[in-house]
């Protein structure tokens, strides 16, 4: 039995247990915050964020993330070219880290969320526990993609030695940040209880 | 309040308050929309900023990196190299590059591309900045011409950029001298142009040099302008002495060409683009009047011609009238079967201009013209009058000889000798040679006379004269003293005589006595002198008793 079945829900803000009518928007009598059984428009909101993130993922990979200008010669790198460069120069642990954090994680996150959404919309009964676990992983790990952006931001701010070396962030960095932020929003707006509603 | 561990009292649960219906548009869908718009705009921007794609071929890809090397015009980036590949025939390297938007109009078949990297050339070191920033491809746009997308890159930067104004000419020269691409062109020691290229003529008989003279100095190049090689240091040793010339230090190091127009030709029309000029080997050579008429004669010499070189001058009374063209061996005119040097000279009447006297008539002018055009008759006439050729020392420093022509009225009569390869002017030995000949004659004469005998006699005479002299030297003082005493006593006597002349007749006796005494004295002197002559040793030893 779910709390929803008997019409009960607790206020997110003050914790007061309340009885909700069948439909319509309600709010807590004690603190005034909005009450709902599940996150409002969870699926559509999640889809919106997810699609936006997917669209933004293209420029994130096609445009350069960082440009190193040294002695008048500029060298721009996209995420993948940076990974390849690090790998070819023997720094494969770093290459691995960057690859996992900047390529693998956002991609898998988006795929995972898409899978979750689709599974909920198709009212699947299967693997509810795994799906919930998946959701938890997605929510926790997602923020680590920001590592790459922090690196770019730090380098751009610190490496400013005039003509010898200057680092400029590129369009790709902004796009990538957008992707990460949007996937975080997408994950937040997904209500995992929907998995168990079927 | 429900106490813990008690079943929930569903009836005491408060009721949530119903909101008013307000279903707004799910604003969240704006986000993917915005993302789509931004992405689309970025894509569109990238596509529209992409300029034309071109292909350039070079011989080598040295310094060029795919995806990195930039194409610049006036140091502004106008394109980037995308890929570097080797052509199918393995002979060239093909680059594909993307130019900036808007460069479409400048990609024509007259536009040029070349790689800028550090180079050392005659004009100096260029492209040093690329040591730090990496090589780049320079682009020189040109709107005139057909549009095209495939280019052949230049291996070396073009000497003259398209926007420099000026005129190009070509020069012909025997040897390249110290010229190289980029060697400066001087006009009154102003650097106003450079050598653009050079190549051997098709028949290998001369070198064809291309030059570029900047405007406005190209106006000074007229059709009769003379160009000469001003590079390096020119040292010449000839009959006139040693001559050292140099234009400037830069020209010494990198070679150079200078030009000037003789005043009488300054009004000739300006030379057109592509005019071919002769490049002379130095200034003096270029200022010489052009020689077109040469009349060849042969000169036979019996002595040595060492010190005479081809190109030495032929002078008449100090004025150059020709040049030595060749030195050969030919039949000795005086000794059959023996060879002797034959000097071939060219008389060049154009070298000097005739002077016009006050009473110059048309006949004289005609004469001068005839001299210039066909001097053979004139020379024949002059030879009859005594014109001869001989070798003279031009410079004691260099020891070089030259050919001197002059009139020798006392010379043996002769005429121009015809019949050989060239007509022959008779020769005389040089003044040095003549002097040597005279000396030889004197020495021979001396050798022939009996010098030895004469010398021996002279010697003997010397000896006896010497001994006589020494004798006299010893005796004369003594003799003089005696004579002196004698004269003194004579004097006294005469005085006494005079004294006693006024006295009585004693004088006659005394006079007689005196005269007798004098006679006796003279006699004894005579005897003594004769005796001394027979016995000179009596001076020392006294009378020995011999008569």
Could you characterize the architecture of this molecule?
- The complex is a heterodimer of chains A (198) and B (547).
- In chain A, 57% of the residues lie in helices and 12% in strands.
- With 198 residues, chain A is α+β, with helices and mostly antiparallel strands.
- Chain A has two domains: 37 residues, no CATH class; 157 residues, Butyryl-CoA Dehydrogenase, subunit A, domain 3 (Up-down Bundle), CATH 1.20.140.
- In chain A, the strands form three sheets. In chain A, strands 6-5-7 form a three-stranded antiparallel sheet.
- The radius of gyration of chain A is 22 Å and the shape is elongated.
- The model of chain A has no long low-confidence stretch (mean pLDDT 86).
- Chain B has four domains: 107 residues, no CATH class; 122 residues, no CATH class; 133 residues, no CATH class; 87 residues, no CATH class.
- The radius of gyration of chain B is 56 Å and the shape is elongated.
- Chain B starts with 16 loop residues before the first strand and ends in a 6-residue tail after the last helix.
- The mean pLDDT of chain B is 82.
- Strand 3 of chain A pairs antiparallel with strand 1 of chain B.
């Amino acid at each position: 039995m779910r709390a929803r079945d008997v019409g009960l829900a607790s206020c997110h803000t003050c914790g007061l247990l309340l009885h909700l009518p069948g439909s319509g928007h309600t709010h807590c009598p004690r603190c005034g915050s909005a009450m709902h059984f599940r996150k409002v428009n969870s699926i559509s909101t999640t889809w919106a964020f997810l699609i936006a993130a997917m669209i933004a993922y293209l420029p994130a990979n096609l445009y350069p993330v960082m440009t190193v200008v040294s002695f008048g010669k500029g060298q721009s790198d996209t995420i993948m070219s940076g990974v390849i460069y690090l790998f070819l120069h023997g720094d494969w642990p770093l290459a691995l880290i960057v690859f996992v954090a900047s390529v693998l994680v956002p991609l898998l996150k988006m795929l995972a969320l898409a899978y979750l959404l689709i599974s909920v919309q198709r009212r699947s009964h299967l693997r509810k526990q795994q799906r919930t676990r998946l959701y938890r992983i997605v929510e926790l790990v997602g923020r680590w993609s920001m590592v790459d952006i922090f690196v770019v931001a730090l380098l751009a701010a610190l490496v400013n030695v005039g003509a010898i070396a200057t680092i400029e962030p590129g369009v790709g960095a902004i796009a990538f940040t957008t992707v990460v932020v949007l996937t975080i929003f997408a994950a937040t707006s997904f209500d995992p209880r929907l998995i168990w509603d079927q | 309040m429900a106490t813990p561990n008690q079943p929930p009292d569903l009836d005491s649960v408060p009721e949530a308050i119903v909101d008013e219906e307000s279903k707004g548009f799910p604003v969240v869908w704006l986000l993917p929309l915005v993302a789509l718009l931004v992405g689309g705009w970025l894509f569109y921007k990238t596509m529209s900023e992409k300029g034309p794609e071109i292909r350039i071929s070079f011989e080598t890809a040295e310094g060029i990196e795919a995806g990195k090397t930039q194409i610049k015009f006036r140091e502004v980036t106008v394109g980037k190299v995308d890929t570097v590949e080797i052509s199918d025939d393995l002979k060239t390297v093909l680059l594909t590059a993307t130019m900036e938007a808007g460069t479409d109009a400048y990609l024509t078949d007259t536009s040029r591309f070349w790689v800028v990297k550090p180079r050392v050339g005659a004009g100096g070191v260029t492209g040093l900045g690329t040591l730090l920033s990496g090589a780049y491809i320079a682009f020189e746009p040109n709107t005139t011409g057909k549009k095209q997308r495939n280019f052949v890159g230049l291996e070396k930067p073009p000497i003259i950029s398209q926007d420099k104004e000026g005129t190009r000419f070509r020069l012909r020269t025997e040897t390249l001298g110290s010229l190289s691409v980029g060697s400066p062109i001087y006009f009154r020691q102003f650097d106003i142009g450079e050598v653009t290229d050079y190549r051997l003529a098709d028949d290998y008989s001369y070198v064809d040099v291309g030059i570029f003279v900047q405007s406005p100095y190209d106006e000074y190049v007229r059709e009769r302008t003379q160009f000469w090689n001003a590079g390096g240091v020119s040292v010449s040793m000839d009959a006139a002495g040693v001559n050292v010339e140099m234009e400037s230090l830069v020209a010494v190091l990198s070679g150079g060409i200078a030009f000037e127009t003789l005043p009488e030709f300054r009004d000739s029309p300006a030379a057109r683009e592509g005019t071919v000029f002769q490049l002379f080997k130095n200034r003096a050579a270029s200022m010489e009047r052009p020689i077109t008429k040469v009349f060849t004669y042969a000169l036979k010499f019996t002595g040595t011609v060492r010190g005479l070189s081809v190109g030495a001058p032929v002078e008449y009374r100090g004025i150059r009238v020709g040049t030595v063209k060749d030195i050969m061996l030919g039949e000795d005119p005086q000794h059959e079967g023996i060879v002797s040097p034959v000097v071939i000279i060219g008389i060049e009447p154009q070298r000097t201009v005739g002077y016009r006297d006050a009473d110059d008539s048309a006949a004289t002018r005609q004469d001068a013209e005839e001299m210039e055009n066909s001097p053979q008759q004139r020379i024949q006439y002059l030879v009859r009058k005594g014109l001869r050729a001989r070798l003279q020392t031009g410079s004691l420093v260099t020891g070089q000889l030259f050919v001197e022509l002059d009139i020798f009225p006392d010379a043996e009569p002769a005429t121009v000798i015809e019949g050989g390869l060239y007509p022959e002017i008779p020769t005389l030995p040089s003044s040095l040679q003549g002097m040597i000949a005279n000396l030889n004659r004197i020495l021979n004469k001396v050798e022939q006379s009996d010098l030895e005998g004469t010398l021996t006699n002279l010697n003997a005479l010397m000896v006896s004269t010497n001994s006589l002299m020494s004798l006299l030297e010893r005796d004369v003082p003594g003799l003089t003293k005696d004579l002196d005493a004698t004269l003194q006593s004579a004097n006294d006597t005469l005085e006494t005589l005079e004294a006693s002349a006024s006295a009585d007749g004693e004088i006659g006796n005394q006079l007689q006595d005196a005269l007798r005494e004098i006679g006796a004295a003279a006699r004894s002197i005579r005897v003594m002198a004769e005796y001394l002559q027979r016995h000179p040793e009596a001076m020392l030893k006294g009378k020995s008793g011999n008569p």
